[in-house]
Amino acid sequence: MAVSSTTAQSLIDELYLMGRAIKVSIARNEDQRLLAGGLGVLVTLEEHGPCRQGDLAVSMCLSPSALSRHVAELVADDLLSRHPDPTDGRATVLHITDRGRALLRRIRVERAEVIAALLDDWGDDDAERARSTIRSLREKLTEHALRTGAGEHQPVR
């Protein structure tokens, strides 16, 4: 069963508006010092483990130059560190620092408390269904971007 273009456009509109709503409702002032996307870098590195910057750019569907800005800021704030790549001395591998992990934990706890309070009329099953659907959509979008090189910030392999 195919999704109609009208429904697809409505979904895109809702996702954009959701992103805006998330930004204004759960972001704390102290989190604003991270460049937009800096938190995403920390989350991705925590999920995938230490990796080269180029590999991180591909997995995040970011251009290497856009990622470089995020990485530079996170390294300067001691949230990430660079280490020589043991397989290629010319390259470096990015790692989350203890300070970065602590920041990520704190932000997650604070944001989870806000979302839990906002969803006081939902149960865990409702929230899990929403999470599962959103994750499936994200995976499809990422797979498409990597397969086709779609988007302005096309990843470089």
From TrEMBL:
Residues 8-143 form the HTH marR-type domain. Pfam families: MarR (PF01047). It comes from the Bacteria. Keywords: DNA-binding, Transcription, Transcription regulation. Signal peptide: none annotated. PANTHER family: MARR-FAMILY TRANSCRIPTIONAL REGULATOR, TRANSCRIPTIONAL REGULATOR, MARR FAMILY. This is MarR family winged helix-turn-helix transcriptional regulator. It comes from Nocardia jiangsuensis. The lineage of its organism: Bacteria, Bacillati, Actinomycetota, Actinomycetes, Mycobacteriales.
